[in-house]
Each structure stands twice: as C-alpha cells, then as structure tokens.
Amino acid sequence: MTLAFIHSRARLGLQAPPVTIEVHLSNGLPGFQLVGLAETTVREARDRVRSALLTCGFDFPDRKIIVNLAPADLPKEGGRFDLPIAIGILVASGQLPAAAVADTEFYGELALSGEIRPIVGEIPLALAAQQAGRALLLPMQNACVARQVPDVLVLGASHLLQVHSHLLAQQPLPPIPALPDTAIPSPLCLSDVKGQQHAKRALEIAASGSHNLLFYGPPGTGKSMLAQRLAGILPPLTFHEALESAAIYSIAALPPAADLRRRPFRQPHHTSSAPALAGGGTMPKPGEISLAHHGVLFLDELPEFQRHVLDALREPLETGLVHISRAGRQAEFPAQFQLVAALNPSPSGHHLDGRASKAEILRYLARISGPLTDRIDLQLEVPLLPAGVLSQQSNGETSEIVASRVLAGRERQLVRQGKPNARLSSSELEQFCPLQSADSAFLEQAVSQLQLSSRSFHKLWKVARTIADLAGDQKIDRPHLLEALSYRAFDKLLRYLRD
Asked: In terms of Cα–Cα distance, which of 291, 268, 292, 287 is closest to 276?
C-alpha cells in the first residue's frame, strides 16, 4: 500500500478539530514534502521523523513522500503530529497494517531516538475522541491526565517501538499509572484571621451565592488573608466542572491541580498585561480569568492595575466567556470566575491619615472604572482592629465549619433554580426569588437615595436571596435586604470623597 490515512487533531482554543494525516509514496526523486498549512514546528517534523525511524531500525522509503495535513485551511502547530506522520509512513510502506490504525487517534512529539515526548492539550483531545468513538494514543505523561475523561480508551506509550509492537499485536502497551491522590485539606483556615467578623460574614455570603467581592481598608487589616481563604470554603467542583478546569490548564501547558475537585485560585501580579489577564497570543491561549474558571480570581492592590487591563474584565464578568480575535484566528475560552479584589482607600494607605488630599485620593481611586465596581456585588471596609484583638488567642470558626453552611446554602439554590444566585438573570430573579411589593418599593427607594444603578438593584436583590438561603428562609424579608445594603460601603466612600 502506498497511501495511508491516520487520525489526529489540531488545537484551536478549547476545540480539537479533526486532522487527517495523508501519506503518499510515489516514484521519482527521493524527497519528503509536507503540505497543509503547517507552522515551522510542524514542518521540522520531517527531520525528526526520519531520524526516529532510522534510529529504531525501520526502513525509510527511498521514494518521494508527500504528507498532507487535511483540511488544508486549518492552521497546525506544535510537535503533536510527529507520531502520526511516522505511523503513516510505516503504514504506507507496508511495515504496519492499515487496519491496525483505523480506529485510533495518534499524538506525540518524537525525539531523534524514537522516544515520545509530551504535548499540550490532552484533555480536549480526549473529549473529542470520546465523541468520535475512537481510541486515543498519547505520550505516557499525557495519558495519565487524559484517562480522567470517562468512556474513552486511552493508551500511553513512551517509545515508537512500543507503538509498533502494540499495533502488530506483538506486545501490549504498558498500563497507564494513576495520578497520585493528593487531596489534602487546605492549610489556609479562616480561623487564622482575628476579628473582622463583618468581613468573614461577607466572605461566607460571597462563597454561597458566587458573588463578586471587594475589600478595602488600611494596609495590614487582613484583606489578603480573607481573600486567600475563599477557595477553602467554596463547594467542591463537580466532575464536569473539574474536567472543564483541567482542559484549560491542559491547553495552557500547566500541570493539573493537585486536587482536581478544589476550585482554582489565581492571583496575578498588578503588573500583568491585558493579554496575560484575558488571554491572547498569536496562537490564542487562555489568560488568568480563564485559568480561574469555576474558581476565584484575586486582584490585590486593585488601583495599581492599569485601567484598560481592569476594563477587560467587564464583559467576561457578565457573560462568563472571553473572545480572542487575531488576524485569521479566533478562539473562545470560558471565564466564569468569581472576582475578589482588595485595595487601600488612598495612595498613602488610609484616606483618614491626612497624608493625601481628597483630590489625590479621587485620582487614585479613579483608576477603577465605575462600570467595573458596579459589577461587584459586595463592597465593604476591613477596618483597623481594636487594641488587644491581635494578642488574643484565635477562637474563630474554622473553614470547615463555614464551608458546611456555604454548601447547604448553595444546594438550596441549585434545587430551586439550578445555578448560584449571582448568575440569575432579571427574569429568573422575578421567577425564582420574588419580592413582596413593599420590599421591592423599599429597595428601589434605597437604590435611588444611594444613587446606584439598575444593575446594583438586581445585585442587591441577589445578595439578599443568598442571605435568606444561608438562614434557611423560603422568602426574602426586610432584614435580608437591610444586610445586603450594608455591603455597599465603597459607594458611600466615593460619595464622601466627592462631597
């Protein structure tokens, strides 16, 4: 046989479009031509494949070899096509039977010795192979991760000779080792934070309803400590959510999380660029907001971020998606994250220390746009602790105790509407979380007096519903609305500074 067809896939965001490796041997001057919109790394496969085949003792055809990566208009990059090209040459030259490769997809970068090196993006490949009903042959390091996808046959190999023996039914591939079970409790406990009961209560509400949260206050009051403990009280990821998160880490070439059921926590530095935060690159890659999908994105020292970088968060906060467009290439990444931000209310640290004027403070806080803060549900001050609190022995609730209440509140929301309160639309709010007419009028009056937007009206409504869920109440009452209104302190600070 002088023509072979091998199944593989390219990488396009979180998608894995199919690619057919067509290998044809013909008479003429010996040569190796690779076509099909291949990047430089793919074109270099000619030398890697030839050396690997010769090193392993295979016959390299002394003929004209044409390898086509179809479809021709789909960009291909990376070393993932080395192994399928080598297998295609072996099939086309009669050194492997065509029937042995018909129902398998192949991936892997070849070393000159024939060893198979890992690639990027094994989880999307496994999900695509599952839908196509084919087996998946990957480098062993990738196979360990890809085997988490159910209902797909994953095979792992470390050398080209192992693949050859397996396809000839001479020796099966070695079993894939299991990922180590590293599900250990988080060392960050909420009981480490002394005092700040109001902030801890807000953290619990944010965790239960998946609300965005803003802490502001002088340096050293515990803002960062509180934010870093949010992930430890969130409900664990479902299996589907864990796979989505693992897929994003996979295409970003990052190792999988130690505990796949724990929600991701990302804390980018304030010098991060917009592409680093939202994603980008010539071949679009996910940014920090996508790496925080189904988890927490913590932005410390919020005004120190460039304003256009922060404004890149506005659309993903509403839609849960980020669209990356480049010349000839587009990608869409999920970005359903929970934003937690912390800031000092003054460039000098505190707006009441007298070291900065009101004009300087307003210029400092103006780095955060109004539309962004409008999308943050809970905004509260973390004040300086009274004298004597720091020297007291810690006796606050542990993260485990708070997490049990958070989980109970979240389950009430999932039973009622199938999603956390923060993700309800206005129509779903009216359907699942109705307000009494007197309470609705009270909330509208409060929003008008506080000069808040209609978006803030709905966010206060959602927070009140979460407070009721934590209390186990069936309906929203006036005390729930009053507590929700108490978490709009940042708006009050800005009005005070403008007066």
From this structure: 287
Mean pLDDT calculated for residue range 147-165: 94
Task: Check: CB of residue 363 under 8 Å from CB of residue 369.
Answer: no
The pLDDT tens digits for 322-352 are 998 877 678 889 999 999 999 998 888 777 6
Nearest CA to 67 out of 2, 21, 133, 5 is that of: 21
Count other C-beta atoms under 10 Å from residue 357's C-beta. 10
User: Which is nearest to 6 in space by CA: 116, 97, 76?
Assistant: 97
CA 149/CA 153 separation, integer angstroms:
9
When comparing pLDDT for 452 and 175, which is higher? 175
Tokens of 66: 């044409």
- Check if the beta carbon of residue 432 is closer than 8 Å to that of residue 424: yes
Considering only CA atoms, which of 132, 75, 143, 135 is closest in space to residue 108?
Answer: 143
Helix, strand or coil, per DSSP, at residue 440: helix
Buried b / exposed e across 225-248, counting CB within 10 Å, b at 16+? bbbbbbbbbbbebeeebbbbbbbb
CA distance 193 to 394: 8
How much is the CA Rg of the chain, to the nearest whole Å?
A: 28
Let me know: does 489 contact 213? Beta carbons within 8 Å: no
Instruction: Tell me the residue ranges of DSSP E strands in 344-491.
Output: 378-381
- 221, exposed or middle or buried, with CB in 10 Å at 0-12, 13-18, 19+? buried
Give this prediction's pTM: 0.89
Average confidence (pLDDT) over 112-139: 95
User: Residues 84, 36: contact at Cβ < 8 Å?
Assistant: no
